[in-house]
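User: Let's play a game. I give you a shape written as tokens, and you guess the letters that built it. Ready? Here's round one.
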């Protein structure tokens, strides 16, 4: 009797033949959503001037945010009931239709309508692509594909505003909208064959789906009001922001997992930590260019380069977490075998939050002229590294803690928490900066200390991403 040697099975790769088209397509779609989100800010001043629509300016940004909140909830319900294929196609369809309408608009009102459609499509698509990852990719590749998603946001953040500026100057602002569909449709076609192969059993809609959409509409309107109120000044700003926050406090808990408000173990904590990290990083990112320009005398280009450092380190952190062995797996097995090795799902999450806390606190030191500027640059690089370690790790945990019929709802909750936390803290940031005739060192320090405090709270709570053992209290 002769022993037959068995060849080890090669680990799956993102660009293996069966996944190559899917990977290229989904990363391209994420990149296009990111580019459009960032490029519009560059083009919008020219748009408002050409269409005589300055009064619509705030709604052009807040409207898509609101429609996206509603779409995230709709997409989660739809994906769980029918699978991700239809939400992906509808997402691409609404996204492209909104871009075409905005790009051909003759009035600012029509452009805002296009932006609303675009935001709705982006919301459908962003959640559906998470479900595609959960159902089309093997678990061992989840960390790497989410790292690719992070890179798909980082690259547009580096080149998007500059590229949009060149398009506005040499081709006209309309092409910021009209050029994207030429890439979005082929990218969607690339993933179509693989989407057909995704097995998605048809199930009945979960109870309370209609009520959930209603609460999403309330949260969307509140988010838009919060965005608008944050751009105002005086008593009107305070009233609008207060009304918006009250609306969010009423609606948002009904869209997030049970146990979210009491920091329950497992999924509620995953959603909460994503929100805390987003709020901390976004508030610091908004204030850094202003602080460097006013307190350190940097030009806008020089101040922007510091944000570029954070984006590059975010990409590096995402790359790193995608190549570390998963906690609880054998590093020599490509992550397939679950062997008892040291590590916890909370390890990378906690490391990321520590980096964000330390990094933002270090940036706060750069307010004072006596502190060398490279100290602040280093701090922001550390904060970006933390986001790169954290974001994909929490995305992976969301899928791991979700049954197949709950991936849509939970992916929706993850992105909702991300958006709503960041919007709320950005409104508070705007209020702090608006105090007095002009912001000073105290204002910048307060915002950066708040960012560090939010991340530190996350460090304390990070261990709760691990679900409680069966039968024990959460």
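Assistant: Ready! My guess for every position:
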């Amino acid at each position: 009797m002769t022993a037959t040697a068995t060849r080890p099975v090669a680990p799956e790769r993102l660009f293996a033949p069966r996944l190559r088209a899917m990977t290229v397509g989904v990363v391209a779609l994420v990149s296009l959503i990111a580019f459009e989100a960032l490029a519009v800010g560059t083009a919008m001043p020219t748009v408002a001037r050409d269409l005589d629509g300055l009064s619509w300016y705030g709604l052009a940004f807040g409207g898509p945010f609101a429609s996206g909140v509603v779409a995230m909830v709709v997409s989660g319900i739809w994906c769980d009931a029918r699978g991700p294929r239809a939400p992906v196609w509808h997402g691409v369809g609404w996204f492209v239709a909104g871009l075409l309408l905005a790009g051909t608009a003759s009035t600012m009102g029509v452009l805002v309508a296009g932006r609303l459609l675009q935001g709705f499509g982006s919301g459908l698509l962003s959640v559906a692509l998470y479900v595609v990852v959960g159902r089309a990719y093997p678990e061992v590749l989840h960390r790497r594909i989410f790292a690719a998603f992070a890179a798909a946001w980082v690259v547009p953040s580096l080149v998007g505003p500059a590229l949009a500026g060149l398009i506005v100057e040499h081709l006209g602002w309309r092409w910021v909208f009209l050029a994207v569909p030429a890439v979005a449709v082929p990218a969607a076609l690339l993933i179509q064959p693989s989407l057909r192969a995704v097995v998605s059993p048809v199930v009945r809609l979960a109870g309370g789906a209609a009520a959930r959409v209603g609460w999403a509409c309330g949260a969307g309107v509140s988010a838009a009001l919060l965005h608008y109120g944050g751009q105002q000044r005086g008593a009107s700003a305070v009233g609008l922001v207060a009304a918006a926050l009250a609306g969010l406090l009423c609606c948002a808990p009904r869209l997030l997992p049970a146990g979210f408000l009491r920091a329950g173990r497992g999924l509620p904590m995953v959603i909460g930590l994503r929100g805390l990290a987003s709020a901390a990083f976004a508030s610091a990112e908004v204030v850094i260019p202003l602080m460097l320009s006013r307190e350190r005398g940097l030009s806008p280009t020089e101040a922007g380069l510091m944000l570029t450092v954070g984006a590059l380190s975010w990409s590096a952190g995402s790359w790193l977490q995608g190549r570390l062995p998963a906690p609880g797996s054998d590093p020599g097995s490509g992550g397939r075998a679950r062997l008892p090795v040291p590590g916890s799902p909370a390890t990378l999450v906690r490391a990321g939050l520590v980096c964000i806390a330390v990094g933002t606190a270090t940036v706060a030191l750069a307010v004072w002229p006596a502190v060398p500027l490279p100290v602040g640059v280093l701090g922001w690089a550390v904060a970006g590294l933390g986001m790169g370690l954290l974001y994909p790790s929490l995305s992976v945990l969301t899928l791991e803690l979700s049954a197949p019929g709950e991936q849509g709802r939970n992916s929706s909750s993850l992105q909702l928490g991300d958006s709503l936390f960041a919007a709320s803290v950005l409104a508070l940031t705007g209020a702090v900066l608006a105090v007095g005739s002009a912001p000073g060192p105290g204002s910048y320090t307060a915002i950066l200390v708040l960012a560090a405090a939010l991340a530190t709270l996350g460090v304390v709570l990070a261990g709760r991403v691990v679900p409680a053992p069966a039968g024990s209290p959460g």
